[in-house]
Design brief:
The protein is an alpha+beta fold. It contains 16 helices and 31 strands. A seven-stranded antiparallel beta sheet has the order 8-7-10-11-12-13-9, covered by helices on one side.
Length: 741
């Protein structure tokens, strides 16, 4: 709830500049067509209602988030309005009264913000409930109204004409209205309905209820109600003669209630600003075309200046790679970052968030700095000014910004003070554990980078975990797959179980792009122990495969693969997150008596699930990459509806000398995929004492599914031979759906 309150405060403060601009424009455009005013208030509604707005260099807003979302965790809270004078006036008060006291059980803001959030919610609820009660009372009063014609009713219980309802609005008139005034009253209320004013006024009141704590919003809502009446008056009298406008003014005066309805009640004719409205009606002149054009241009300029957020600094090392990065730290000699450190810096800059305008660092001397120079000679500088708390600033396009991202601030401290650099003297080795091995492998795979000229690079992130056993060592394999002809592929092995790696090593190789079109880049990192000569046992391993379209110059988005199993009635929802960042959902209906559990193994870097019946494992669900991920090849060579095994999809298994699929039957298909049943055949090489030709062939039932519009992998559900009937297998295939996450 506190997050919502902070968002509401930030939106209302950002909207304040637009509200002030609209107030000024109402004066400057007082002779412009009146319909321009509700349009201007509509911009305020967009600013208040939209949680996400684009950034623009044209924005005149000094700051989009004056209150940091992390303020509740700040040791010295403050605001950043983008105006130094306001910051200097407010922040000493905030820091003086809300700074955390050492040894205290909680930050003062952690106590006050939930209380303020509760008060805010109570205010919102009170306003909305008050509006509801007012409307219910009004509905009770008009329960005896008599239909005059169509959607027009008359009642002796109403003090003034008004419109009730949003979906099917009705006009309610008092009995005492004179016959001569009736056409003007009805024309006015019908114009309200035609313009959709009941909807706009309801939206305005909802926004007022949400932002009730902001005084300008009450002024804004009152003027908005007056402006829609003026715009409606102008629309009605546009074609009237002067005598008719005089009669219309008399009708306005007669229908004035003397006091307004509750703000959320339906629009009431003659409700607000009677004196000004009558004067506007009597002196009405048809606006010149140039006046309308200027009004529209002014409204567009206001939208361009105050609707978008100001541009936030963003760093794109993939477009402008870092050439050098230098640490400057007091009297210490300048120190250049290594290639591995620069790679990590590029990743952190790409993800950097939490920046706000601030010039508080002007004239101060930083404790330490990180100076970054890119290939186009652009210089980025990051300065820290405090030893006790993160106080990091940077310059971006001539403007000062404070970086509030705690992860980046901590990274800057570590890299500048040398905490993340191994000491020159030998140090205790990092023990090889499942955790340290997994972290090291994942960090290494994240550095894999493919460049547009065919270069490939990666680096080892610091110290290599060691078990002390010389037979256990780090091995890395790196290979590229090329498509030579449809259905034909070649492999270039850049590294083949390479060993001998040292702490912090980096690698850069070159692909042979003359071999064909690049279809994939595969990297495998493992810790292996040689238990006998030529016989290895893996302690930990992981795998990453890049597929088109490639993100050139950008480190791989590797994350350990995961799958979440969510039962949903008869359906089971499997949410996958793969190493290359691919996320998708596999939904299926399991046969009765079967359940799923996660296996510790993985194939092709993807999670494997076990099919279980009671406590027995009777099958698996696995993912395998397509033989070809080229969209044109798939569309031209694959016919999903045909009972013909599509080799561009299934070739990683089907082209093996020791495994394959038979009896492929499509059960359901689309333009880009299919679900089918098949037989899986493989040779039992593990239990064969002789040559491969003498190994027995085994078989299992399986269900296959793919959809290249969702992901470049196919699903294989394998079950023990004959365990499920063909009808159950067909039903399982037909129940499968693949969708993006």
């Amino acid at each position: 709830m506190t997050d919502l309150l902070i968002q509401a405060i930030n939106r209302s403060l950002s909207a304040s500049w637009l509200i002030l601009a609209v107030l000024a424009l109402r004066i400057l455009l007082r002779n412009a067509p009146k319909w321009i005013r509700p349009l201007l208030w509509g911009l305020v509604a967009i600013r208040l209602a939209c949680p996400i707005l684009p950034q623009s260099m044209l924005s005149l807003l000094p700051e989009s988030e004056p209150v940091s979302p992390r303020i509740i965790l700040d040791s010295t809270p403050g605001i950043s309005t983008g105006i130094p004078a306001i910051n200097q006036a407010v922040n000493p008060i905030l820091s003086g009264s809300l700074t955390a006291v050492p040894g205290a059980s909680a930050n003062p803001l952690q106590i006050w913000l939930p209380i303020l959030a509760a008060i805010w919610l109570i205010g919102v609820t009170a306003l909305l409930l008050g509006a509801l009660v007012s409307l219910l009372r009004l509905r009770r009063r008009i329960g005896t109204a008599i239909v005059l014609r169509k959607n027009i009713l008359q009642s002796e219980a109403v003090p003034t004409p008004f419109v009730m309802g949003l979906i099917r609005p009705k006009i309610y008139l008092p009995f005492w209205i004179e016959e001569a005034a009736l056409p003007y009253v009805i024309a006015h209320e019908k114009t309200h309905i035609r313009r959709g004013d009941p909807w706009w006024k309801a939206l305005g009141f909802v926004l007022l209820a949400v932002y009730w704590f902001h005084p300008l919003l009450w002024v804004c809502y009152a003027l908005f109600c007056r402006d829609i009446e003026l715009a409606c008056d102008e629309a009605v009298i546009r074609t009237m003669t002067p005598p008719q406008r005089a009669d219309y003014s008399q009708a306005l005066l007669c229908c004035s209630t003397g006091r307004p309805f509750f703000p959320a009640c339906p629009l009431a004719f003659g409700e607000t600003g009677i004196k000004g409205r009558i004067a506007a009606v009597l002196r009405y002149k048809k606006p010149a075309l140039w006046a309308a054009v200027i009004a529209i241009a002014t409204c567009a300029a206001a939208a361009a200046a105050f609707l978008p957020n100001p541009v936030q600094p963003s760093y794109h090392p993939e477009d402008n790679p870092i050439q050098s990065a230098t640490v400057q730290w007091g009297e210490h000699p300048d120190r250049n970052l290594s290639a591995a450190q620069i790679s990590e810096l590029e990743s952190r800059l790409r993800l950097l968030s939490g920046m706000r305008r601030s010039n508080e660092a002007e004239g101060l001397t930083p404790l330490y700095s990180l100076v970054v120079q890119t290939e186009d000679q652009t210089v980025w500088k990051f300065d820290n000014y405090s030893e006790t708390r993160p106080l990091v600033f940077t310059q971006y396009e001539g403007k000062g910004y404070q970086i509030t991202d705690p992860d980046f601030c901590d990274y800057l401290r570590r890299v500048c003070t040398g905490e993340d650099i191994a000491p020159a003297q030998p140090s205790a080795s990092l023990p090889l554990t499942e955790q340290s091995a997994g972290d090291f492998i994942a960090a290494t795979l994240r550095t894999l980078t493919l460049y547009e000229d065919g270069a490939v690079s990666f680096s080892l992130p610091g110290q290599i975990p060691s078990s002390g056993d010389p037979n256990t060592r780090l091995t890395i394999s790196l290979s590229a797959t090329y498509a030579t002809d449809p259905g034909s592929y070649t492999i270039q092995r850049l590294l083949d179980w390479e060993t001998g790696w040292q702490d912090g090593d980096s690698y850069r190789g070159q692909l042979d792009l003359t071999q064909g079109e690049l279809e994939g880049l595969s990297m495998r990192v493992a810790f292996q122990t040689e238990v006998e000569e030529g016989l290895y046992q893996e302690f930990a391993a992981n795998f990453l495969e890049l597929h088109p379209p490639f993100s050139y110059g950008q480190p791989a988005a590797f994350s350990p693969p995961s799958v979440t199993i969510t039962p949903q009635g008869r359906q089971t929802r499997l949410t996958y997150s793969l190493q290359d960042g691919t996320c998708f959902v596999l939904s299926l209906s399991l046969p009765d008596g079967l359940s799923l559990t996660r296996s510790a193994d993985s194939d092709f870097g993807t999670p494997v699930l076990l099919l279980q019946q009671l406590e027995d494992t009777i099958g698996t669900i696995s993912l395998y990459p397509f033989g070809s991920s080229d969209r044109e090849t798939l569309e031209s060579a694959v016919s999903p509806a045909e009972d013909l095994l599509p080799m561009p999809v299934f070739s990683p298994i089907a082209l093996s000398n020791h495994a394959g699929y038979e009896d492929y039957q499509v059960r359901r298909s689309s333009d880009t995929g299919a679900c089918a049943t098949a037989r899986y055949l493989w040779q039992d090489l593990q239990h064969s004492a002789g040559a491969a030709a003498e190994a027995p062939w085994l078989q299992a039932d399986c269900v296959l599914a793919y959809d290249w519009s969702v992901l470049p992998y196919f699903v294989e559900i394998q079950t023990a031979d004959g365990l499920l009937s063909q009808a159950s297998l067909a039903a399982l295939a037909e129940s499968i759906s693949l969708n993006p996450a």
